[in-house]
Design brief:
The complex is a heterodimer of chains A (about 750) and B (about 120).
Chain A: H1 2-17, E1 22-29, E2 43-46, E3 52-54, E4 60-64, E5 71-75, E6 82-85, E7 92-96, E8 114-116, E9 123-128, H2 129-132, E10 151-154, E11 162-166, E12 169-170, E13 174-178, E14 181-182, E15 201-208, E16 222-228, E17 237-244, E18 248-258, E19 263-274, E20 290-304, E21 309-325, H3 331-334, E22 342-359, E23 367-383, E24 386-405, E25 407-429, E26 432-452, E27 457-468, E28 472-486, E29 489-500, H4 504-507, E30 517-520, E31 533-548, E32 551-566, E33 568-571, E34 577-582, E35 587-601, E36 604-619, E37 622-625, E38 632-641, E39 650-660, E40 684-694, E41 699-706, E42 741-750
Parallel strand pairs in A: 1-7, 13-16, 30-34
Antiparallel strand pairs in A: 1-4, 2-3, 2-5, 5-6, 8-9, 9-15, 10-11, 11-12, 13-14, 15-16, 17-18, 17-42, 18-19, 19-20, 20-21, 21-22, 22-23, 23-24, 24-25, 25-26, 26-27, 27-28, 28-29, 29-31, 31-32, 32-35, 33-34, 35-36, 36-37, 36-38, 38-39, 39-40, 40-41, 41-42
Chain B: H1 2-20, E1 26-31, H2 37-49, E2 53-58, E3 64-69, H3 76-85, H4 97-101, H5 112-122
Antiparallel strand pairs in B: 1-3, 2-3
Classes of the chains: A mainly beta (about 750), B alpha+beta (about 120).
Protein name (chain A): TonB-dependent receptor
Organism (chain A): Tenacibaculum pelagium
Pfam families (chain A): CarbopepD_reg_2, Plug, TonB_dep_Rec_b-barrel
Chain lengths: ~750, ~120
Amino acid sequence: MKNNLLVSIFILMSSMSFSQETFKGMIMDKNNPKDNLGVYGASVYWLNTNVGVTTNEKGWFTIPYKSNYKKLVVSFVGYKTDTITINNLKPIHHFITESNTLKEVSVNAKKSATQKSYLQAQNLVTINSEELLKAACCNLSESFETNPSIDVNFSDALTGTKQIQMLGLTSPYLLITQENIPSIRGAAQAFGLTFTPGTWVESIQITKGAGSVINGFESISGQINAELVKPSRDHKFFLNAYGALGGRLELNTHFNQKVSDKWQTGIYVHGNHRGEKFDKNNDGFLDNPLSKQINVMNRWQYTDAEKGWVSFINFHYLDDDKQVGQIGFNPDTDKGSTTIWGSEIKSKRFETSAKLGYVFPDLPFQSMGLQAAYSNHKQDSYFGLREYDIEHQSFYSNFLFNSIIGDTRHKFKTGLSFTYDKYDEMVKTTPQVNDYNRNETSVGAFFEYAYDNSDDISVTAGIRVDNHNLLGTFLTPRLHVRYSPWEKGVFRTSVGRGKRSANIFAENQQLFASSRQINIGNANGKIYGLDPEVAWNYGVSFLQGYKLFGRKGDVTFDFYRTNFDNQVVVDWENPQEISFYNLDGKSVANSFQVELNQNIIPFFNTRFSYKYYDVNTDFKSGNAAKALQAKHRFFANVSYETSKQENDAHWKFDVTYNWIGKQRLPNTSQNPIQYQLSEYSNSYNLLNAQITKVFSKKFEIYAGAENITNYKQKNPILASDDPFGSSFDTTIVYAPIFGSNFYTGLRFKID
Amino acid sequence: MKKLVLVITVLFLSVSMSAQKKKKNAKVSFDVDGVCMMCKNRIEKAALNSKGVKYALWNVKTHQLNLIIDERKTDAATVQQNIANVGHDTDAFKAPKEVYDNLHGCCKYRDEEIQNDHKKEKQ
């Protein structure tokens, strides 16, 4: 230590005495390249020395130079610290980027937290970490509340799990990937979104419609990709604590460490706990589950920029326990009881994945990548006297090669993929016990061609062929076209096919917390006796950016239609039964959305959206609109930030409003009169608000309220007074159960 | 016999070596005059429109154009000519006057005033 000090003093002195030579340059803001404004007050110093200066009002600096100084470090509050290699004395112009900036899409004065792409063929929306902070709690399922493209619904009256929908279809019809590896599928479908803590998510990309063929054939209405925090970009230490009056406590810690020149690692630990019992609606049942979760991830990142190698290795372990049911239920003594109803859901998941990417050093347009992932998901659960256990092991691998045809306007991606899924399920509905085991293997090859004339037209055309042991051999074509006839105006169209095997129990787990008899229509199919689901999705959209009184805004019109060739129909129309059968007739989902984003004054942004859904299916009892689906929805979000002080201190305000129109309720006319519901639910309003006070780069606190108007569904549980009777049903949920909730939390970061 | 094989092999190698001189992915870079992002788009487009150019990146600040070309199909001079034809000067080729005159006002890089305007913007 003393030595180091001495050396640095010596270097400092020597640099002072011999500093005839100077090095000049200018530091600019990457977000403002058009006006090329210099950054005032950025600090510039030579790596491993004490030789440093700050930039002047115009962004210029002059720093003493010696030939052994090679690496120049540029840092500025709120921006990424850059290290530049200096080989000669030519003045440099260096652009710095805001620390939360991800893939640059557009060049704006203030980058908005949600970015719509003007350039990509696909209808893509990127949500970055700033937007994710608007809904402070707590996991991936709750990350979409400020985004109108995705609707958040409630899956059942017991667990309060939030279910997402896009284009009027529930999440099983979406491909949800984590860093482009399919993650929430199979056994993880019901609760998987709650198994990725919000602080682990760096950004989310939402593609509406068909999507790309690269990640498989399963997606039908869209794709959601979550990029996780990376050891190289995340804070060295990060702490987030959250507490809500509803009894929910959460803690997140991140540790990131540079191990060597090329290796970096991060450990991310999440825990949440809810131990307090609430029964605000006096139905004798817990309004929220008692729960605890431990969630640990370890990431390793390898980067060799010179040779072009990049690699990630991940390990993730999760243990999640939930207890729901009647207030007095004690699992130790009451499990299996026929007088007091309770339920426990225990999930354990282990997953590991590795990625290896190589960019040809001399050919910037050519690269290849290999991904491999393994997961084991185990859920043991009982619901009153019913039991449901599932173990799902999955292996996924994908090899991808990117290059060009002729020149960089014609790009292609091609590769091979292999997946293996092993399901072991046990369904016990006394006195019956059924085991369902199945293995799925598929081998596929894909080719995707992308044309972009870097001006007004881009096209992505992809096709894949897969051989699957249960779905057969089939083609999956997908096409996206973008045409931009005038400035900031973009027309898009897409068409694509998707095919999947429905995991009827895992995807509709709420059925177990009811007295409904399970009927599976046997059609001699290979998946529970049923056939695979096949659908085509078509979409058109138009986006126009504009300036109104000098303020930026954009408006989007989307229309999408999903047509099922075959669907595994989930029929809730008989209150004593749930039936699964192959579609006989038609099933379509139409969705129309108009969205308006408008900046009012600097740092004051508004977003409005109206959505119309027409989702209907031919049930055995006739064609009917999808139950628990509002035809009309309205969304508004207003956010405001005060200007940042020198130490980064500022306030952030965010308010989100949702109006959810009336929803058709499943038919309950066969129930005894006291357990019958009306044909439609009432429409209702939801209001959420959050305030964040940033004290410095290091520390911030936030407080917020959910469902401020305290709207609650009356009697969310049918026959809650007779849970072992034939009308007991917790599945008909169209509104919040808990009412208003207030929370607060803090974030602490060290870089 | 053995010697003959060796000789043929060596011959063959040397032939293929000389053939390799015309590289499939040759890196080429030269300066192209221009001032703004519109110029950048025009320059890169003209470069990519030349047969055999695979990759083009022009730097607004340094005015350097980096190319990856297939030397069997084209050479730097051809690309420079094509770029000059759309209005941008290189060391070897000057843009025809009528093409230059038709450039957008922002792109008149020969005009010192315009150059200074862009420099001012930078500062």
